[in-house]
């Protein structure tokens, strides 16, 4: 059965993934206070003006951040030293939340790209 809410998704995450993603969620709520929060493509996501701006997920050995764009992460490549990433996915250890300032930069770049 697919997760229907963000809370259900997070409730199903093992530790330390759950705590790490709860911290990321809190940072995104602070950065995007007016965003709509929900499930998109089976993962938690924040939408602004009906456009996905940030998503996140847990996997067996890592957590991932999704900017919903193939050009956000390459633009911030110098700030992603030490992380594994591709055009659309930033992987991070399940016990090490992303720094809030990095999350803020990721969101800012995405918002600039969509003209917000």
Q: Your description of this structure?
A:
Helices cover 34% and strands 24% of the residues. With 116 residues, the protein is an alpha+beta fold. It is globular. The mean pLDDT is 95.
The structural domain count equals 1
Number of helices: 4
Find the structural class using helix and strand composition. alpha+beta
Q: What's the helix-strand series? A: HHEEEEHEEH
Report the end-to-end length measured between terminal Cα atoms: 35 Å
Tell me the name of the CATH class: Alpha Beta
Strand content: 15-25%
- Uncertain segments are none
Strand order of the largest sheet: 1-2-3-4-6-5
Rounded to the nearest angstrom, the radius of gyration is 13 Å
How many E strands? 6
Largest sheet: 6 strands, antiparallel
Average of the residue pLDDT scores:
95
Helix content: 25-40%
CATH-derived architecture: Alpha-Beta Complex
Q: CATH topology, anyone?
A: Aspartate Aminotransferase, domain 1
Molecular shape = globular
